Amino acid sequence: MWAMPSSWPEFMLHDPIGNGYYAALDLFAEHVLVCFDETGDVVAKAFSVPFHLDGGDLPADGWDGVVRRGLAGRLPGGREPNAVSAVEIAVRPDMQAAASPPRCWQRCATTPAASGTPSWWHRYGPAARPTRTSR
Description:
This protein is of the alpha+beta class. It has helices at residues 16-23, 62-73, 105-114, and strands at residues 32-36, 42-51, 83-91, 119-122, 131-134. Helix 3 (105-114) links the parallel strand 3 (83-91) and strand 4. Mean pLDDT is 76; it is low at 118-135.
């Protein structure tokens, strides 16, 4: 999974908050989705983090805040998650132009509901407006 080529910019590979999330990935194993092709090669991966959301909008501190809240929620006495945010959704660069996305993305939409978390929060691109999908 880690060897899959990625189109993520270099600076994202050195983000301290992101590095904290990936270092604690075993805490969020049920929120990881890896897609394989028929030969067993990784073609896509998705990582998300459950977190506690106060109110109806994403935290003002954005992606960093969501990841910090997710990590803090796993500590003793942490707040119960009531939302899930995408951390990384990546498709192998040579597969990005495919006419249809990998079938595994259908599972992304059902993962939060299956875990008992009612909402997905996601942001596509740094300037995109957050979107909520309720389950």
